[in-house]
Amino acid sequence: SCPASDGVVYQINTGSTFLIECGIDHYGGDLELSYPGSFGACIAACDNNPQCVD
Predict the structure, then answer these.
(1) Domain ranges, ordered by start, for the chain
(2) How many degrees, rounded to 5, is the angle at CA 16 between CA 14 and CA 20?
């Protein structure tokens, strides 16, 4: 959780990596409303969406 995770690089089983940024809102890249159930599932949903900011 933030702020402890700020700057952490999270890698999923596909090899994709995501930089965790606390308190940052990038223009665009928002996912539609979903309830993934876990942090890992949320990151996987982002990985499957080409418009997601990673």
Answers:
(1) 9-47
(2) 135
User: Closest Cα to residue 46, out of 36, 26, 9, 3?
Assistant: 36
Asked if 39 contacts 3 with a C-beta cutoff of 8 angstroms, the reply is no
- Residues 24, 16: Cα–Cα separation, whole Å: 20
Q: What is the pLDDT of residues 1-54, one digit of tens each?
A: 899 999 999 999 999 999 999 999 888 767 788 899 998 898 998 899 888 875
Closest CA to 46 of 22, 24, 8, 38: 38
Between the CA atoms of 53, 1, 21 and 37, what dihedral angle is there, to the nearest 10 degrees?
A: 0
